[in-house]
Amino acid sequence: MSKDKILALLEEHKGTILSGNDLSEKLGISRNAIWKSINALRKDGHEITSVKNKGYVLEMGSDHLSESEIRLHLEEYASSYHMLILDEIPSTNTYVKEHKDLPDHTVVLAKTQTSGRGRMGKTFHSKDQGGLYLSLLLTKDLTRYNTDLATLAAALAAAETLDTKCGVHTRIKWVNDLYLSGLKVCGILTEGSLEFESGTLNSLIIGVGINVNTESFPEELKDIATSLHEVTGKKFLRSALIADLLINLEKHLLMTRENPEELLRRYKEKMLYLGEDITIHRGNEITSGKLLDLSPQGHLIIESQGKTLTLNSGEISIRKRVYKK
């Protein structure tokens, strides 16, 4: 489609004026077709300015998701990924699980999700188009990864991406939530499927939801969630964040086999409540203890009632212990 080709050129020269003649000659289409495509792109949400007698410019702050811009930021890694950008779906992880024919390294992005999911059946607010909602599907060479550490690797990859690209200091609440200024800014959900006969893993899905440019939350979430925009007052280009996140996800997943000790060391540096008293929630059961460390498998090591316990993720959540006065 000429619209997609025009967008790719504008993104390649983002912030620079391209004349109608230049676009017409490069794409072999009429000036009128250029004008119609520009208007269609504006309706899609792209911030394109017409400069009288000069041409068109895609504004640097334009943040409408597009595959071509994500691939520009991926640079030499661009050919590694298949991409789908969808307007509205229940959740990206659910979409991947329902479409069995998707190839390895497929990235599914949603502009909005109606049923964003987290661990333990919790929901993730994702009805705002300023968010970043994606799932990465991996199906080949899964033995390269220690999937027991996949959630920790994904959380650390997301945290280091946001810190580097957005100038913030995120913390990780074991095992899969990122916090900023004491409020949740990102959630991770990893899911795998087993081959029935052999019992071996045949797919790994890593879902990531980040509140990027979200400006408001429902009343029930205002004291729980935040966004990068709320904390910094800045707007961020999601295409650049997506590219860096994908690259970091691959690097951190490889670390689960190649250098798990370093992965765990960096994870613990960002981990909330380490060395502090916490409450441990398992279904309706609530116990308290001190969070001592992580095991080599990424499990919690807790001191509780004079005993040292090792707890895996499963249906466990932790919170900082609050003492009543």
Automatic annotation (TrEMBL):
<dbReference type="InterPro" id="IPR013196">
    <property type="entry name" value="HTH_11"/>
</dbReference>
<dbReference type="GO" id="GO:0016740">
    <property type="term" value="F:transferase activity"/>
</dbReference>
<keyword id="KW-0678">Repressor</keyword>
<dbReference type="Pfam" id="PF02237">
    <property type="entry name" value="BPL_C"/>
</dbReference>
<dbReference type="GO" id="GO:0009249">
    <property type="term" value="P:protein lipoylation"/>
</dbReference>
<dbReference type="InterPro" id="IPR030855">
    <property type="entry name" value="Bifunct_BirA"/>
</dbReference>
<comment type="similarity">
    <text>Belongs to the biotin--protein ligase family.</text>
</comment>
<dbReference type="InterPro" id="IPR036390">
    <property type="entry name" value="WH_DNA-bd_sf"/>
</dbReference>
<dbReference type="Pfam" id="PF08279">
    <property type="entry name" value="HTH_11"/>
</dbReference>
<protein>
    <recommendedName>
        <fullName>Bifunctional ligase/repressor BirA</fullName>
        <ecNumber>6.3.4.15</ecNumber>
    </recommendedName>
</protein>
<keyword id="KW-0067">ATP-binding</keyword>
<feature type="DNA-binding region" description="H-T-H motif">
    <location>
        <begin position="20"/>
        <end position="39"/>
    </location>
</feature>
<dbReference type="InterPro" id="IPR003142">
    <property type="entry name" value="BPL_C"/>
</dbReference>
<feature type="binding site">
    <location>
        <position position="113"/>
    </location>
    <ligand>
        <name>biotin</name>
    </ligand>
</feature>
<keyword id="KW-0804">Transcription</keyword>
<dbReference type="GO" id="GO:0003677">
    <property type="term" value="F:DNA binding"/>
</dbReference>
<feature type="domain" description="BPL/LPL catalytic">
    <location>
        <begin position="78"/>
        <end position="257"/>
    </location>
</feature>
<keyword id="KW-0238">DNA-binding</keyword>
<keyword id="KW-0092">Biotin</keyword>
<comment type="function">
    <text>Acts both as a biotin--[acetyl-CoA-carboxylase] ligase and a repressor.</text>
</comment>
<dbReference type="Pfam" id="PF03099">
    <property type="entry name" value="BPL_LplA_LipB"/>
</dbReference>
<feature type="binding site">
    <location>
        <position position="184"/>
    </location>
    <ligand>
        <name>biotin</name>
    </ligand>
</feature>
<keyword id="KW-0436">Ligase</keyword>
<dbReference type="InterPro" id="IPR008988">
    <property type="entry name" value="Transcriptional_repressor_C"/>
</dbReference>
<keyword id="KW-0547">Nucleotide-binding</keyword>
<keyword id="KW-0805">Transcription regulation</keyword>
<feature type="binding site">
    <location>
        <begin position="117"/>
        <end position="119"/>
    </location>
    <ligand>
        <name>biotin</name>
    </ligand>
</feature>
<dbReference type="GO" id="GO:0004077">
    <property type="term" value="F:biotin--[biotin carboxyl-carrier protein] ligase activity"/>
</dbReference>
<dbReference type="GO" id="GO:0005737">
    <property type="term" value="C:cytoplasm"/>
</dbReference>
<dbReference type="GO" id="GO:0006355">
    <property type="term" value="P:regulation of DNA-templated transcription"/>
</dbReference>
<dbReference type="InterPro" id="IPR004143">
    <property type="entry name" value="BPL_LPL_catalytic"/>
</dbReference>
<dbReference type="GO" id="GO:0005524">
    <property type="term" value="F:ATP binding"/>
</dbReference>
<dbReference type="InterPro" id="IPR045864">
    <property type="entry name" value="aa-tRNA-synth_II/BPL/LPL"/>
</dbReference>
<feature type="binding site">
    <location>
        <begin position="91"/>
        <end position="93"/>
    </location>
    <ligand>
        <name>biotin</name>
    </ligand>
</feature>
<dbReference type="InterPro" id="IPR036388">
    <property type="entry name" value="WH-like_DNA-bd_sf"/>
</dbReference>
<dbReference type="InterPro" id="IPR004408">
    <property type="entry name" value="Biotin_CoA_COase_ligase"/>
</dbReference>
